[in-house]
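A reminder before we start the practical. When you read a complex entry, don't treat the lines as separate problems. The point of joint prediction is that each chain is placed relative to the others, so the output describes one connected object in space. Small molecules and nucleic acid strands, if listed, are placed in the same frame. In the example below there are two entries. Take a minute to note the order of the lines before looking further.
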Amino acid sequence: MLLQQLINGLTLGGVYAIIAIGYTMVYGILELINFAHGEIYMLGAYLAIIFLGLFTAMGLTAASIPIALILTAILTIIFCSAYGFTIEKVAYKPLRNAPRLSPLISAIGVSIFLQNYVMLTQGATDKVFPHRFGEAGFQFMDVNVTYLQALIILVSGLLMFFLHLFIHKTRMGKAMRATAQDKTMAALVGINVDNIISATFIIGAGLAAVAGIMVASYYGLVNYFIGYIAGIKAFTAAVLGGIGNIPGAMLGGIILGLVESTGSAYISSEYKDAYAFIILIIILLIKPSGILGKTTEEKV
Amino acid sequence: MLKLVSIHTSYNNIKALKGIDIEVNKGEIVCLIGSNGAGKTTTLLTISGILKPDSGDIIFEGKSLKNISPHSIVNRGICQVPEGRRIFPRLTVLENLEMGAYSVNSKYQISNFKNNIEKVFSLFPILKERIKQHGGTLSGGEQQMLAIGRALMANPKLLLLDEPSLGLAPIMVSKIFRTIKEINEEGVTILLVEQNAKAALRLSHRGYVLENGAIKLHGSGEDLLHNEDVKNAYLGE
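Here is the predicted structure of the whole assembly.
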């Protein structure tokens, strides 16, 4: 029973973690809580449904489900990254030197705009993911793991691994860390800070897109409002790990997923969404800098 | 090589520079002295494009630097070691140096990078020992060496140094000044901002005295050292 909940929690936690990374990366560079980030995830879920629906209509899904899913993922990531890039250019860049509250308000505005834009164009009712993965899976230490769960855990694990490599080993990743630590000095060594900021939004949005695809396929249903609650949970995960800290966001996401699934099983599933807020309140009271905040801070 | 023509710059709505004319010739060490708030740092930040001048022009190697972004100015060959050194605290010494070479064209990067890093390590052997440490864990003097080393990684034609001696022990100050001379002798032109006016003027070919955002005096380092006004105001004699 506990192990089963841990698997469920890890699935959920992986999704929260990769959304939280987008929050924490943007915060690391701009010190902005990007409230529109949850909406990118929601767009990812919708775009996945639209593209997979399209491929199903074309007969591609019937021919090969993996190819259809991979194409769906690629297109969804490209579209969501384009949204992330555009949002930064339109809503945040003009406010770069404004008081800190202004871009925050702008972020909330973008969030409301995107929710309503999707509601008007896609309708207010739930949308169904065009493919059912079913309960097929395997036994692992007496626990049922569906193939989809295993895939979600694997994909989120790989994404976090490659992101870590990217941030620490590549020229651009190092430039991102440098920019997060000191924007003016980054410009003085010849880093194009605007490009680094754009890249941060593109990567964060791409990750949120993957999270959206995974959730849409896991639960099978989406609506235009899912970005709000997912955004707040991912924000909680980022704060829990120490906002601005990438390993912290990964850790925070996984802890949140585990708490939510064990709490639902042993306490009450009625409070499923409340656990995140309880954690947020506790962490803000006890250690506002988060688990990995300050001391081992590696912000981007 | 570098020419500031009637530069006016505002900083936080205060007119910090009120029409500055400065000329730096190739191969020179030129220093800019003056008290706190005279506009020395503002001058350097304006040259690097971090602050935009309200009016006037900056000409580098015959081309205007106006409306050019800071990273492109680095690409033109102007590097700055800013006030307070501004080491990236959570990057290692090696990563800090790699960031210094960020602007170097990637085609030449690998061999050029190795050459430059060897040059930096021969100037400052202590950095080699600290290569894996985070920049933030270095002492003030080591951070200053790293800051200068980082700027040299980009093969600058003109190096802007803002208060390199600030907060350092006397022995470290003379080490830094000797190194500045060495760097200059290898062909790098230097514009130096200093509170330590005596040491700066001794080192420099020419100097400018900045007061309240305007150039009050200029002349050779030797002349300024013996100027009565300079002696009274800045040399404490």
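Discuss with your neighbour: The domain at 25-50+69-234 of chain B is CATH 3.40.50.300 (Rossmann fold). What might explain this?
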